[in-house]
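My main concern about presentation is that the manuscript never shows what a single data entry looks like. The format is easy to grasp once an entry is in front of the reader. For illustration, here is how one protein appears when written out as sequence plus structure tokens:
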Amino acid sequence: MNSLDLQVTLFIKGAEVLPQKINHLNNLLFKIKTALLTLWSASMGWAITTKSAAISTIGLCLIAGFLFPDIAISRSQDFYINRLVEIHFYLRKLSNAQLNLSETKGIPGNLIFPLTASIAADHERSIKKINPIRNLKSYFIVPYATLIISNILIFVYLLQI
């Protein structure tokens, strides 16, 4: 097996693994948001039942505690999505030139599996090179702001009782 055959094999393996990694991270994000909503709802129910404004502040701590893992996992997922997009563009370029992988001189190093080896070095460059996938407003500000505003309203309500 020559070097190009090994590169092609690793390239294909990486293209198969990327969607699995993206789906796994998506499942983690869903579980984080589900856990946050469950715990936040329980803490607000407890605060309203006991009529304690102090207990309602637990909700703000929960929001802050779940926000950081959510952002970290989302950024990791963006990295893998960007790599999948780069692979797609590379294959489209080969298709437009009517070449197959075995006719190329080599595959770019950043597209060869394992893709995680260069995450730290390439992450920022990868994010800046391709348009951002996530809209900060829709993925973070709206859901978390809604919970924060609701938490503050419940806190104010409990102060008045």
The chain is about 80% helix and 0% strand.
